[in-house]
Amino acid sequence: MSRVSFNRKNIRNNKLLNEIIKANYKETFWNEEDKILPIHVGVNFVKLYVEKDGDKAISSPDCLHQDCEPFTFAHLIERTNVTGGTNAIAIPEADGNKPEEIDNNDLIEVFEITQPLESYGVYDPDVSHYVSPVEKGNGNNIGVRLVILIDYQQTVVADVDE
Ligand SMILES: [Fe+2]
After folding, report:
1. Neighbours of ion ligand 1 (CB under 5 A)
2. Residue 1's pLDDT band (boundaries 50, 70, 90)?
3. pTM for the structure as a whole
């Protein structure tokens, strides 16, 4: 996996990305106290690519897990000549396992995003999530799966107990 670096200024000014950030924000929900201070938005481009047959690009961590941000949305930018990259959503208790290791009843959904801007979102406290490794497809060109991850987090204020 590689974190792709884009020109930050161009990306920040990208109208489509800004509209997506606003649209995703509308899907989030917060306690009244969370809304007093700014909500932080994290934007990461995650590119999995494979050059040769038999190569595997693995997302980290390679198991069902939860992130610490309450909301994360994933939007597909590109998926070319790859197999895998299958998403799984499961109950939180499945954390640390591969989807095939858990009881089928604990698996909520298994799917692939294949079209540009196809998306999904998770409310982290309620689920664990996973994306399977990507391998090269049958074409001659390199395999690529590029996703934008947008996460939302309230300002975390330290608890001072005195
Ligand atoms: Fe994650």
Report:
1. 67
2. very low
3. 0.90
